Amino acid sequence: MCKECGCGETNGNTRLQFFVKGYTEENAKEVERALLGLPGVLFVHIHAHDGETVVDYAPAKTKLMDIIGVFSARGLEAAL
């Protein structure tokens, strides 16, 4: 296991699938950059056309509320 980012076979990461309302092509790219800028977020994949957003993160480094805050700060509505 990598000591810097915590990646590895038994890393304790969590993968969440959100459905987000309000994406445009521009703000989807902005959200992706913001999420990847959070500590412990390893992977983000956004389908702007239907709002499907997958986030793979380490809960020990980033809290769920931090992720939701990225959506809320941009006026987006996210549901799990």
Shape: globular
**Helicity level:** 25-40%
Estimated structural class: alpha+beta
Uncertain regions spanning at least 5 consecutive residues: none
Mean pLDDT: 90
Ends: how far apart?
Answer: 29 Å
Largest sheet: 4 strands, antiparallel
What order do the SSEs take from the amino end to the carboxyl end, as H and E? EHEEHE
Number of helices: 2
Widest beta sheet: strand line-up: 2-3-1-4
Radius of gyration: 13 Å
Summarize the structure in words.
This protein has 80 residues and is of the alpha+beta class. The protein has helices spanning 25-36, 64-73; strands at residues 14-21, 41-46, 52-57, 77-79. Helices cover 28% and strands 29% of the residues. The model has no long low-confidence stretch (mean pLDDT 90). The radius of gyration is 13 Å and the shape is globular. Strand 2 and strand 3 form a beta hairpin. The chain contains 2 helices and 4 strands. A 4-stranded antiparallel beta sheet has the order 2-3-1-4, with helices on one face.
